[in-house]
Fold:
Amino acid sequence: MRRLLTIHDSFNFEENDFDITAYGEVLLDMISREEAPLKECVNFTRYFGGSPANVLVNMQRLENKTAFISRIGDDEFGEYLREILDDEGVNLDCLQYDQEEGTPIIFVNKSRETPSWLAYRGADINLEITDSIYDKIDNSSIFFMGSFILSKNPARATAIKALEYAVDKNKVFAFDPSFRANLWPEGNKGSKIIRDLLAQADIIKPSLDDAYHLYGQDHPENYLKKYHSDGAGIVILTLGKDGVLLSDGNNEPLHIPVFSEKVVDVTGAGDSFWSGFLTGILKGLPVKEAARLGNAVAAFKIQGVGALSSVPPLAEIISYYDIQPIEGGNFDE
Amino acid sequence: MRRLLTIHDSFNFEENDFDITAYGEVLLDMISREEAPLKECVNFTRYFGGSPANVLVNMQRLENKTAFISRIGDDEFGEYLREILDDEGVNLDCLQYDQEEGTPIIFVNKSRETPSWLAYRGADINLEITDSIYDKIDNSSIFFMGSFILSKNPARATAIKALEYAVDKNKVFAFDPSFRANLWPEGNKGSKIIRDLLAQADIIKPSLDDAYHLYGQDHPENYLKKYHSDGAGIVILTLGKDGVLLSDGNNEPLHIPVFSEKVVDVTGAGDSFWSGFLTGILKGLPVKEAARLGNAVAAFKIQGVGALSSVPPLAEIISYYDIQPIEGGNFDE
Structure:
């Protein structure tokens, strides 16, 4: 189903009620204040979290129309999250409330190396397909999904139903394939499910770490080949401080360096990239220029603290980093 | 099955490997630093929690031999809790590790009024009966259980199996009947299950708040009558700053005032009372004198911070509050 685009092409979208519908989790990130193993951490601070939710909030700030399909507990933590999404203008018609299970939480320790974490699943597991969800997908240009919601049933089965519907309806499917065995009841065997879904995706944005967990140790260029060989369309491999590699599987991969020299906090940098990149392709930018816009938004993000640190107005980002519109086009369209 | 004792009588125990086996939860209490609705709380501090676990740690400090039947996640939070129990000398042969579900957590907001809370159940729900559990019960003088572990199946069904075994084996069954509808999937109907278990209990220690949630608004003396009418043996109704009411259902209830005038933190005061009281009856004190020892331990507790704030050596408590041994007996027996 995926489009055969090169990194020099633009996506075409018809006018829709929503630029993007994201499907997945919104949750509390409980980050330790101590830099220590989680077992020894005593103090925790609560943050708004969940990759699809972060992407949508950032995209609202970049002037897109967004809708969210998710499920939270009918509790005070859920209310805290809902109010933020609502204040940002995300459409919440498809936000479900669970009467039995709580709002999910992830505990993470502050760490200079790879942080360790513990996930407390809850309401997210029970996300149900409704007619109103199909309706939102019908009226959206892009369908976005991460991997957390795919890691455990019954959430997995319903998520796959939703994404197959979106692909069937020829929506652009943007997928964040981030496999971590300890979230999956079947352990490493879960990676096959993620790999099977790659062939449905028009765009994926794994990190080096994601690639390592899916394919084992290898070189970035080989990772790109493996993702394409599993059927992914456009692959954006993020390399941390080394920027991103952009590949369509046919042309030579394009390297884009990081735009920011100052790094305060990289939390949510990937979600910021997504929001800038998807804003770019919605505006009709060629994929490679949209990736530059992704880098630009991520650059603003990593100079502030928190996954939702302030994103400046789109016009400012575009002018600051000299993002080029398509020939004859402009950003006001 | 329950003993027909008055508050002037002593319990008789044969020598056993363990003075007490407690069955139930050990968990993280995540207490907010802000005095605000939970929705607005940003910072949380982690504490060791779970009523049966607190009772055992305090009883170890009071020189009893204790064993714990519980289940935690095979994760870093579980390890933190296990190490504390182990350091205190609690027997952990029957501590189970869940590979799928995490260590339970309760979020509580700091509040001068009744705090609000959110429970994240996990491994506790899957506590399984094993031969080794029956063995621990066989070799213990007292069997202790709270109500958290009864609130949700499958944990409830196995907990009832264990307590019925203990009662069958003529163990002293000490029960903390603390019903809160929002922990029970069946809501208020759950109170019937707690009430049905009262008839098995030799000793119960509800608070005024517990009585209110079970029977609705009433006077302390009427609450005592209701507990006895449901079949409970010795009833110790805790009245907060007004001390405790002690009743056997036949004699006039005995009022014991609070021993401490200074109050720093009442968290875990009830668990401290339990540990002093049960230590007293294990030492052969008459019930009413054991209740004074319970009050004495609680008095030391509420002058410090945290559910496990330091309990002084038993001899010091006994002498400070002039607890009377049985005639001709002494505390060294």
Summary: Chain B has one domain: 18-320. Residues 287-302 of chain B form the longest helix (16 residues). Residues 202 and 233 of chain B are 5 Å apart (CA to CA). Chain B touches chain A at residues 30, 37-46, 73, 75-77, 79-80, 100, 102, 105, 107, 116, 118-120, 122, 185 (CB under 8 Å).
